[in-house]
């Protein structure tokens, strides 16, 4: 009721908020005067009195009407609604029912845009009043003093920008254009809502409380809407660009537009709606009430789509069928894909399979299925539709469902298999993990070096021993020489970093320095690497390097495999199995309870047995051949120097007076046998023979976890790839999917990044933007 007065206070508050003032900050001098004037008017509100009943006491009303007025200005916008009551004698009485006022938004809008917003406010108030008033409203009229807004509402052909288009759509959804009228600004009481008033002016303003004078006349709803139109220069009109096809075909064909669909049901439904619209145009009826698409309409749309596909793919065959009256065998080349199908044109105009099922009792669409080409987007949609219908079963079930539904696809089996290979759901359920061509042997496996210069380490166990009455766990620490395949076994009391460092120190004290140590990413190995790095930071690194180089030695280098990549450590994992086999035999023959000392004895015996095995088995059955080469040959001839001294040693040096040359010649022959008998046996790749597509950045994969069922494997996106010298990606870094997002789509917590080998992931979606490293396939 006092919206014009409240608008002034709202405007003061908006001005203060725009200046970023706090509640306790003093009001600026530019606003204080306006604020004090408005504040002084508050006590005068008690002078305003409003009768509770809209209808006069002595009036017998027979007709009720609602009239809504709206207006906008730079200061604000608003609306006011009046109830027009008429009695049997034609006497008219009007009363203000409801009003709303709003300050103009801080974001800049045009005056016609604000006028349209005010008109929408009238529509919302109208909906509210009709629900709350317990009288029968015979007529409802909306008044605005903007001809542009009336043109917006009456528009039928022009397109507006989003702001205007949304508001016009809301207005048209609840009112008819015929309900809107023009009123001059001098007769518009909503002008008070958009500009504001003080209390003393509002109290005595008759137009505010009872509306304009013309509401009491009989011709109050004089129609003036038809003369208002939207000009082409209106700034709210949407700019439409025209694309011209120089080939002469300015319109895309129906089949071309259908190729944009990714679902068979939606493609049929859309064409069915187009057919319905065409029928309405032919009937000259534009009734817009929506009715769900019927089955008959879907069937009609399906026939239209298939007919278009067949006319494009089988144009030559269709012409022959039409000319030869379905006697296709007399004019068809035997090389045609349709030759063996005995095709004919059915009553619906579709090319169908003739076949040998004429005497069966099946439905027509089963006896004579529709023929579909293999190179068509619609064929792919049909395959996808029925593959989803059988819940992503295999190729045979999907193909049987397609044929039993009345479709015969050329080369259907291969097309269904191709679709299943690309199906993301099928990949999640049944796809194998990624593979890559087996990598070349690393340099430390094919280079001559002293035993255990290049080593690998891993734990095995635990073994239960008994000390007194206590049972304790002991672990085996197996060091493997990468070149000679010799092993060294130590025992550890636990899986801690300290225990491993002690075992490592015992190993290097007995076997000499180790330039490189390979391992997996166990916490004890990572801890040892960090301890070594910490010790180096505390010492003078350059001086230590210089001293070590004098003895042809260097700092130890850790090379760790990515997590869940046990196949990358096969050279030492296989040795663990050999040691286990020997220990199982020894323990089965000894019924006594082990203690710490006996366990170390068993470990040493196992080490000796494994180091005495032949490295190659090609010449074992030849009695005239030399003794097989074993790792012990290298261990017993290991010298203090890392590499043999320079010089060429020949066979005659075995009889040289210089004994050191005899030793070096014997060692040289030993390495030649290693190269001839053992190294060549590593030449053949046993699996992973062909290069595969490299994993690329932004590929979407499933992270395989043997401890979880496949439907609980985590989803990941490839962030980084690691290619080897041949350009093959074998290790990747993944961003793990996190479902905990806020309303803005941002993460609640830090993203998790994992490093994995490609053999531990399943490809779901290949990236369309990522680039493979050089050498990718």
The spatial strand order of the largest sheet comes to 3-2-1-4-5
User: Main sheet, how many strands, which sense, barrel?
Assistant: 5 strands, mixed
Give the assembly state of these chains: single chain
- Identify low-pLDDT runs: 242-251, 638-646, 771-777
Shape: flat
Based on DSSP secondary structure assignment, what is the total number of beta strands? 19
Number of helices, where a helix is a run of at least 4 consecutive DSSP H or I residues = 25
User: In percent, how helical is the residue content?
Assistant: 25-40%
* Beginning-to-end CA distance, first to last residue: 77 Å
Query: What portion of the residues fall into strands of 2 or more residues?
Result: 15-25%
User: Gyration radius, to the nearest Å?
Assistant: 45 Å
Mean of residue pLDDT?
Answer: 78
Q: Give the helix/strand class.
A: alpha/beta
Reconstruct the topology from this structure.
Layout: H1 3-18, H2 29-40, E1 61-72, E2 76-87, E3 92-103, H3 111-132, E4 137-144, H4 147-154, H5 162-174, E5 180-182, H6 190-195, H7 199-203, H8 206-210, H9 254-258, H10 264-282, H11 295-313, H12 315-323, E6 344-345, E7 351-352, H13 364-367, E8 370-372, H14 377-389, H15 395-404, E9 407-409, H16 412-422, H17 424-430, H18 443-446, E10 454-467, E11 470-481, E12 487-492, H19 497-511, E13 516-519, H20 523-537, H21 541-550, E14 557-560, H22 570-588, H23 596-611, H24 631-636, H25 659-678, E15 700-703, E16 714-723, E17 729-736, E18 753-757, E19 761-765
